[in-house]
Backbone:
């Protein structure tokens, strides 16, 4: 006997419906007296993970005295309830429906203050067999053996069930065998009542429930969606996962999608079902080696986002600055996108952060691990069990293969078992990555003079040389970009010279032409004399000064810059030459912009100050000049 038979009897005999009072314990339910509302039975369904079977038990409030003279192995002390009013019942192969239903009658009657007696025939059997208690109906019992009128198709399906080991594999094999037989069956009997079961199969349903389910399935296949207990609705999903009612794995996915739209999206089903549904659809695509884009439709978007970010950081040179920064922000914290480094020039800020990671990721000396590996570890394989929480029967042995959902998530099938190879979050070292990003944000804010500066953390000092190198490269690039670009086309120069010479010769007289020839011959150097010139004489000749480009600075501006370099006040020099400090600062900044590419002198409250970052550049410029 099964618990479902007891609940069916309670409903038919007393109009008592099973009540599930605890969301966190779906396997526990109660049957309450129809008049008083008090419990007369506590039902318990629990899954035994060691044996792979479901254990069914109940406590009946029929009184301990009701067991006197009634010796049955499935009857005993209560499992959960306390006191002499309760009796425990185990539902197994030998549990007799007539005895359990009679005890339930006693429980209902006891609540009504009515008494019942048990009459047992304890006489030995005439066949001379061992003594055995034979139950007779309780006085006043309403129990009648159920009479099920079943369609022949369902009757044949039930006979196909093979009893034996109650493992998940045998349950799935029985389900697949019966489901293939019932694939095209239709019915028109309405569903009545509730149905709660872990890993439900056809074998768990009563005759009425089976007919109600197949009628509901008939409507579902026609696009008509009606409410159904979740455990029964899962049967339809299990069928499609096993290819029942579908021409191919792709067809199964399409029908599962239609079920999600028509059943779950309409608010009929259990919201928790959607998570399982997407998981199984992803597993169905992978197991059947469907295209990658098909499987990715059902993968968790957060998982795909994380994998993409890892792929970007693993090969940053293959991705844009925006992609690298987005990946860094995903792992580096919520504050990074709000950095003022991005406020003034976002593209430049993205580039600087991207270059910091590219340089840091490549800056390692073997056998030291690269920064990506230090932060995220290496791809590791772990066991993967598709359809572990579903009734799914594996049919044919599959060939060994790899299935890459993305570059950072690869599923491998070897020798009949699956593994998934990916980066595991427990191995991530976010502190090292966040240290790099904090130091980068700190130094880039100072470099770009954004304000809102950060405090230094000595633990992040290891990243300073990397970031300083990026800043130096960016400064040099800015200087080069600021230089004026002059392009001279030399392709026509020789032709211009030839045309000019021809024009000149055509205008000369014969005497002028002869004079020009004599001058050309006289201008030819005496090579031998030049080679005979002593080296010492050449060494004594005055050295020529190198030509150094001098910015467009006048004498007053040069004096102001030298005063600032020496640490003296430059305002006096400006006043002596009747120049406002602000005007002098603007003129100097404009004159040096081509060389420096940025403001070099600040003027606040008529006081001049040199930007310290450009002190060496100014000193180099002034060192290459001289008064003329």
Residues:
């Amino acid at each position: 006997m099964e618990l479902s038979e007891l609940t069916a009897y309670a409903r038919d005999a007393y109009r008592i419906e099973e009540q599930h009072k605890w969301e966190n314990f779906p396997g526990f339910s109660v049957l309450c007296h129809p008049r008083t509302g008090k419990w007369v039975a506590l039902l318990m369904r629990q899954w035994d993970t060691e044996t792979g079977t479901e254990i069914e038990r109940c406590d009946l409030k029929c009184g301990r005295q009701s067991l006197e003279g009634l010796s049955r192995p499935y009857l005993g002390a209560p499992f959960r309830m306390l006191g002499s009013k309760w009796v425990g019942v185990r539902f197994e192969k030998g549990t007799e429906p007539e005895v359990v239903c009679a005890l339930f009658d006693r429980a209902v009657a006891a609540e009504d203050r009515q008494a019942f007696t048990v009459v047992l025939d304890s006489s030995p059997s005439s066949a001379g067999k061992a003594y055995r208690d034979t139950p007779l109906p309780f006085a006043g019992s309403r129990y009648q053996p159920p009479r099920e009128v079943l369609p022949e198709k369902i009757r044949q399906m039930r006979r196909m069930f093979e009893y034996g080991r109650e493992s998940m594999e045998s349950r799935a094999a029985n389900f697949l065998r019966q489901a293939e037989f019932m694939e095209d069956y239709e019915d028109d009997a309405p569903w009545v009542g509730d149905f709660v079961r872990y890993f439900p199969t056809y074998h768990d349903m009563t005759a009425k429930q089976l007919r109600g389910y197949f009628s509901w399935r008939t409507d579902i296949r026609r696009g008509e969606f009606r409410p159904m207990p979740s455990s029964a609705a899962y049967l339809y999903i299990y069928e499609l996962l096993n290819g029942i009612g579908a021409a191919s794995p792709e067809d199964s996915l399409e029908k599962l999608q239609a079920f999600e739209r028509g059943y779950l999206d309409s608010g009929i089903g259990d919201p928790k079902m959607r998570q399982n549904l997407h998981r199984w659809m992803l597993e169905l695509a992978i197991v059947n080696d469907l295209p990658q884009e098909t499987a990715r439709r059902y993968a968790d978007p957060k998982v795909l986002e994380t994998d993409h970010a890892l792929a970007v950081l693993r090969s940053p040179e293959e991705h844009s600055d925006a992609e690298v920064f987005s990946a860094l922000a995903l792992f580096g914290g919520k504050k990074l996108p709000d950095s003022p480094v991005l406020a003034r020039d976002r593209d430049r800020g993205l580039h600087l952060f991207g270059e910091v990671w590219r340089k840091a990721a490549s800056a390692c000396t073997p056998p030291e691990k690269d920064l990506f590996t230090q932060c995220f570890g290496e791809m590791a394989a772990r066991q993967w069990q598709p359809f572990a929480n579903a009734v799914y029967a594996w049919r044919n042995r599959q060939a060994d293969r790899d299935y890459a959902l993305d570059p950072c998530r690869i599923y491998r099938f070897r020798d009949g078992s699956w593994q998934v190879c990916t980066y595991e979050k427990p191995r991530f070292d976010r502190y090292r990555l966040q240290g790099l990003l904090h130091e980068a944000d700190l130094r880039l804010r100072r470099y770009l003079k954004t304000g809102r500066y950060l405090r230094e953390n000595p633990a992040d000092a290891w990243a300073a040389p990397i970031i300083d190198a990026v800043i130096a490269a960016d400064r040099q690039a800015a200087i080069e970009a600021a230089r004026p670009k002059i392009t001279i086309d030399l392709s026509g120069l020789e032709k211009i010279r030839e045309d000019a010479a021809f024009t000149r010769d055509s205008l000369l007289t014969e005497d002028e032409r002869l004079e020009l020839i004599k001058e050309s011959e006289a201008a030819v150097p005496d090579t031998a004399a030049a080679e005979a010139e002593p080296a010492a004489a050449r060494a004594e000749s005055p050295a020529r000064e190198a030509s150094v480009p001098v910015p467009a600075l006048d004498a007053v501006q040069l004096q102001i810059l030298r005063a600032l370099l020496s640490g003296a006040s430059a305002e006096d020099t400006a006043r002596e030459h009747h120049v406002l400090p602000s005007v002098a600062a603007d003129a100097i900044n404009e004159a040096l912009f081509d060389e420096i590419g940025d403001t070099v002198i600040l003027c606040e409250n008529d006081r001049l100050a040199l930007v310290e970052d450009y002190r060496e550049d100014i000193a180099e410029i002034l060192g290459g000049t001289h008064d003329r």
Notes: Confidence is low (pLDDT under 50) at residues 114-140, 535-549. The longest helix spans residues 430-448. The domain at 3-135 is CATH 3.90.1150.30 (Aspartate Aminotransferase, domain 1).
